[in-house]
Amino acid sequence: MFDPALLRSLTGTPLRVECDILRAQPLHPVSWPGAWSVVRITARNAGSTGRGEATLRPGVAAHRPTALRSQLAGAHPALLRMVSPTELPALLPAGPLRSAMDTALWDLLAKRTGQPVWDLVGAPRPRAVPLVHTVERGEPGALESELERSADFDGLRVKLGAGAVEDDLARLTAVRRHRPDAWLMAAADGSWDVDRLRVMLPVLHDHGVRLLEQPLPEAESGVLCTLRRPFPIITRTAYGDDRDMGRLVSRYDGIRLTLDAVGGLTTALRLMEQADQLGLLVLLGSPPATPRSWAAALQAAPGAHYVNYTPGLTLRDGADPVRPTDGALAPMPAPLWG
Question: What is the pTM of this model?
Answer without folding.
Answer: 0.92
